[in-house]
Structure formats: structure tokens, C-alpha cells
From TrEMBL:
<dbReference type="InterPro" id="IPR007431">
    <property type="entry name" value="ACP_PD"/>
</dbReference>
<protein>
    <submittedName>
        <fullName>DUF479 domain-containing protein</fullName>
    </submittedName>
</protein>
<keyword id="KW-0378">Hydrolase</keyword>
<keyword id="KW-0444">Lipid biosynthesis</keyword>
<keyword id="KW-0275">Fatty acid biosynthesis</keyword>
<keyword id="KW-0276">Fatty acid metabolism</keyword>
<keyword id="KW-0443">Lipid metabolism</keyword>
<dbReference type="Pfam" id="PF04336">
    <property type="entry name" value="ACP_PD"/>
</dbReference>
Length: 208
């Protein structure tokens, strides 16, 4: 899962949102020194990734990619699933998407002191360029995936993967819609994070 999905699956607090994004930047971080709510968010991130990697719907999605790009199918799905989450936001969320993003960005800015430098740099760029708004557009998802391909440090044929996503859009979407409710139920069942106190004006964002 990618950044938006991890924030969606976090508690609506600064420490949880920081922790749930930290999983992609945790190398070298002394996790035992993190505040408990941040550490719990990090554990939730790891649990989400582990469950996602072995889910049958995700595996079926990866199988749709050609042999030349299947090695990187997981990367493509990470970003694509953020797009599908936005596409079907009202199906899974009780809070307006723009309001959710505004609050999430504010919490990440407030939690910068909790982040390693590499994460703070990416988060600053994410907010400045409003990645989540860009992910509404599948063409923009393609541009993002091509940029990722350009950062891979060895020769690859990942660039242009959006062509295969367009080709299998309806099938990939169907697999996502079958998978996400299972993932939400898994996160709820694991309960790795302490439930957040209600925030005035911000209803809990999952549809339960």
C-alpha cells in the first residue's frame, strides 16, 4: 500500500499518521526510542504491508502484468491502489476526501520533528506538490510510476507500465474492491494502535 492508503488506515492523530508513513523510511531508525503511538503506527504499517503482500486479490492483480513488468507489479499497485481509493472514496470513508487530506497534511507538518530526515524531505515534497490530488488522475499515476522507474538503480523495463494498467483497469479495480474491505477488517481485528479520542468536527473516517 502507498502513502494515502497508510494514512487512511491510521488513527486520525499526528503520531499515528507519522508512524503509519514511517514504515517506508524506518531503515536505521531506533524504533525502541520512538514514542509509543508512533511505534504502534509503524507496527500497523508493517502489518498492513504483510497482509497486502499475501492477499489472493493482490496476487491476482500482479498476475495481470506482463512478464517484462511483473517484477515491479507491487510498486505499480502501491500507487494505483491510492488512485482506486480516491476513485471510490465515498464507498469506504465517512469524511470528505479534501477535508481528510487537509487534516492529514496538517498532522504530518506538525509531526515533522518525529520524522527521520529522509521522511521529512519526502513529506515536504508530498505536501508542496499535493500528490494526493494528483493521484485522482490515472494519467498522473502513470507519470509518478515513470519517475519511480527512473530512480531504480539498475536497468529495467518498468517505464510505461501505465499502458498495462489502462489495459486491465476494470480487472485491477475489481480486485482492489474485493481486497480493501478485507484489509480494513484485518486492521480493525489486529488493533495494534490505541483508538484515538474523537476530534471535534472530524468524524472517524472508515465506514465500519
Amino acid at each position: 500500500m502507498n502513502h494515502l492508503a497508510h494514512l487512511f488506515l491510521a488513527q486520525p492523530t499526528t503520531p499515528s499518521r507519522v508512524g503509519n508513513l514511517l514504515g517506508d523510511f524506518a531503515r536505521g531508525v531506533r524504533t525502541e526510542a520512538l514514542p509509543a503511538p508512533v511505534r504502534q503506527g509503524l507496527q500497523n504499517h508493517w502489518a498492513v504491508d504483510a497482509y497486502t503482500d499475501r492477499h489472493p486479490e493482490v496476487m491476482a492483480s500482479k498476475a495481470l502484468f506482463s512478464s517484462r513488468r511483473r517484477r515491479f507489479a507491487g510498486i505499480a499497485l502501491d500507487v494505483l491502489y491510492d488512485h482506486f481509493l480516491i476513485r471510490h472514496w465515498s464507498r469506504f470513508a465517512t469524511v470528505d476526501f479534501d477535508a481528510f487530506v487537509t487534516r492529514a497534511y496538517a498532522d504530518l507538518e506538525a509531526g515533522e520533528h518525529l520524522m527521520p530526515a529522509s521522511m521529512a524531505t519526502v513529506v515536504e515534497r508530498m505536501i508542496r506538490h499535493d500528490w494526493f490530488d494528483a493521484y485522482r488522475d490515472l494519467e498522473q499515476v502513470g507519470f509518478a510510476l515513470d519517475r519511480i522507474a527512473g530512480r531504480i538503480r539498475f536497468a529495467n523495463r518498468f517505464e510505461g507500465v501505465i499502458e498495462e494498467i489502462w489495459q486491465h483497469d476494470s480487472e485491477l479495480e475489481a480486485h482492489f474492491l474485493a481486497f480493501l474491505p478485507d484489509l480494513i477488517a484485518h486492521v480493525q481485528a489486529r488493533s495494534l494502535e490505541q483508538p484515538a479520542e474523537p476530534v471535534p468536527g472530524e468524524p472517524w473516517h472508515w465506514i465500519r
